[in-house]
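dude i think i finally got it to work??
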Amino acid sequence: MKTTSSVEIVDARKSLLQWLHPFVLVLLVFSLTLVLLVTPMEHGIRRAYTLLIIGLIAMTLLAYVLNLKNRYNISAFLTVAMSVIGTWSSLLISYSLQVNDLFPLVYVSITVILAGLFLPLRFAMLLALLQVVGCIALVMFYPVASAFNWPSCLVFIIALSVLSIASNYIRKNQMMQLQNYAIRDHLTGLFNRRYFEETLENKVLRAEHNTLSLALILLDIDGFKHYNDQYGHDAGDVVLKAVADILFNTVSLKDIVCRYGGDEFIIIVPYTKIQNVQDLCQKFRSELKKMELIYQTTNLGVVTISQGVALFPQHGTAMQTLVNHADEALYKAKEEGRDRVVFSK
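look at this
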């Protein structure tokens, strides 16, 4: 993938959900105890609430186990669903039994907050809208509910929902920015070495599991020290950015371009044929030679690169072995005169 990150970074939401479930279970058990000890038997309200809370406890336990088994998405949706079911079941039980109970409305807003924390933004927004529609329908179909100051309740729910969704949208954007800073090279905008190492390991494991091929292209800029020495480091940065742009714009969506360090770049080309890799390497060379590179009115001349290629599984099945083979092939390309592609033997 050229533009999106697939690095496995520990999601704070998973940790938060793992902490939240035991807390919710304690609250549910406490609520069940109160229902059994305090709620009167008339109208069957004790039985209705007892069955509801037992069901919610079962859902929370299932969500907790799923989260522990790294099924975060299912666990998150189940957690929010548990909140929705608990809220609206409480309201429907109260109003169908003609019990004037406004307190379950508090959970309407809590449900939206949970959705904003754990679900994609579009789901949180849809849920907020459905909650408001549900509150209006509740007033229309249950006369006992109209005894409350419903306009104020709706304004409160809408305002809290909007604030919750907005704050979580900002938080998620900040998290994405921090993640990008952690895996991107600040100069070129390409993925950095840390990202490369984590991604290559995953790609190798997947290729091995599915009996697929994989190519690793290690390249550096010929005579890069010349640009720094003759024109200064700013000129060197211009060259690095230009090469990075050519590489990024030449590869396909499935390929991963990273800055390996200094003037070295490395590209992971998954699930492809040797001829395709050869064509890609030659395209890098030809596209760079077409580039007119100007620094402060000075033409920096033609930029050439040397490339070393290692293939999985021909040249090894371990990540470091592949890198070593690509490095040896790059060294040979330099020895043979630069501006060429050498495949590892």
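The first helix runs from residue 12 to 38.
im so relieved honestly
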